[in-house]
Amino acid sequence: MNRSTGISWRLVAVATVLAVAGMSAACGGGTADPPVTAQSGGATHDGHGQGAPPPPSPTPPRAGERFVTLKMPQPYAPVAPNGGTDEYRCFLVDPGLSTQAYLTGSQFLPQNADIVHHAIFFQIPPAGAAEARELDEGTPGEGWQCFGDSGVNGDAWVAHWAPGADEVLLDEGLGYEMPAGSQLVMQVHYNLLATGGQSGGTDQSSIRLRVADGSVPMTPLDTVRLPAPVELPCTAQESGPLCDRAAAIDDVTRRFGDDVGSNAAALIRRCGNGTPAPGSTQHCDHPMEGAATIYATAGHMHLLGRAITIELNPGTTGAQTLLDVPQYNFDDQAIRPLATPVKIKKGDVLRVTCTHDAGLRKMLPQLQSLPPRYVVWGDGTADEMCLGLLIGTQ
């Protein structure tokens, strides 16, 4: 968790799950193609586990690009640890880069969409490859457990998928740096609510990368994560031991460990005065430590999410809304390209605001059998998040 007073354009190190991101119209005038295109689907707030249609065919490679398809080494049968209903598993995959390259697009292909909640891909620099292999080889079975991030020092978020997102295609001249010898870690969040945390089948998901030759000059991209607290009490009609905030945090810690369990307190310190303010809507202000250009945004919550926004300099004469999702749908988490890129200056403030609804617990089949709880930040499908995402350049 970044506990400084501001954020830089580099990745904010928050122990978190996924969400989604992309791009928009190129800098300057004219009629340039959008820096990112993406397709979305889903129209109802019906939760996860509805299967997925076959992905559309990818856009053909452009000049200097090639496709690299990477698949999990073997089918994996997830099992949730510590009495929970979610597993985060990391798999090391090698894109086979012998020279400098750039990742200019991607299309994740979930093999078992009924249990794949989301996926994040972390670029591991050559200096971290040995650490990643040690984690992989030192863990029984395929991959390793990885609540939070990849567990490898120096990782960088370069691609991701959530329901409703398909191919991401960056504009020419923009890409994520992939030095020779880079590895990728595929982090998959498996949602096992339907089976009570037990294995409900296997998964062998893959990703189709769009890789460009590094000899062509490109502007490197970064992804910024903007978290906010979640402090959602039980409804007036609910009661039970987990409606107590301290008990709920203890439960999150038991299921996911101290790094995730400490997020609730860390976010309150970072985003407020250290005292939780229970309610359905929470926000966090993130001062920028440097200049940047934003091309696209996205937001991520779980099944109790109702709305999410990202604002630039709220409450000022120059305020702008970068993301506005008034009716959040878990099954439609596609990227939101900006109509034109937005320039951010050092000292500007980015505010992410989320609204959650505890009443949805009684409406969603996946959650109806679970005991009511005070909901805080947690990595499980039945827990919640408030996460804004920005993709851009420094």
From TrEMBL:
Keywords: Disulfide bond, Signal. GO terms for molecular function: copper ion binding; dopamine beta-monooxygenase activity. This is Copper type II ascorbate-dependent monooxygenase C-terminal domain-containing protein. Pfam families: Cu2_monoox_C. It comes from Phytohabitans rumicis. PROSITE patterns: PROKAR_LIPOPROTEIN. Residues 32-64 are annotated as: Disordered. PANTHER family: DOPAMINE BETA HYDROXYLASE RELATED, MOXD1 HOMOLOG 1.
